Amino acid sequence: MESLFPIVFAAVLILVSLVVGHIIEALHFRRLAQQEREYESMLVTNLKTIPPQAAHAGAVIVVGEAVIATDYFKVFAAGLRNLFGGEMKSFISLQNRARRQATLRMLEDAKRYGARAVWNVRYETATIQGQENQKAGGVEIIAYGTALVW
User: Fold this and answer.
1) Residue pLDDT, tens place only, 66-107
2) Residue 62 maps to which CATH number?
3) CA angle 96, 101, 105 (to 5 degrees)
4) What is the pTM of this model?
5) Which residue from 6, 15, 52, 87 puts its CA 20 to 30 A from 38's CA?
6) Are strands 138-149 and 117-128 parallel, antiparallel or unpaired?
7) What's the domain count of the chain?
8) DSSP tag of 145
9) Nearest to 60 by CA among 103, 106, 113, 124
10) Where are the alpha helices (DSSP H) in 39-120?
11) Which residues are CB-neighbours of 50 under 8 A, at least 6 positions away?
């Protein structure tokens, strides 16, 4: 019976992290959708060429950064996927959340300057590995672009 305790404990921990992680992720997606509605009127594009009507606009670089940590279930699922091979789908939602959060922070920065558009938007990504000290790790994304004020 004592030998089953670590297995049962690990299974309960994984199950709890699945449920709690799913709830936290769903709440974050809901918050992101609400915040994105605030910036619907602001034009955001990855085009390099500025439109003629904004040729004389003031320009400033704007940046937004987001770091999203993973949960233990995603680490467990990624470990299994790594063992058998294939796409680590558990990290796709982390990338998506971090990208959307970084974009929102960039738009918030643009709003402070009174910008009506953000042009030439780019993303830089980094995966933070936490394997060394038994930490879970996460994803970092930096969004940057040129805010146009006209």
Assistant:
1) 999 887 777 777 777 778 887 877 788 889 999 999 999 999
2) 3.30.110.70
3) 150
4) 0.82
5) 52
6) antiparallel
7) 1
8) E
9) 113
10) 72-84, 92-112
11) 57, 119, 146, 148
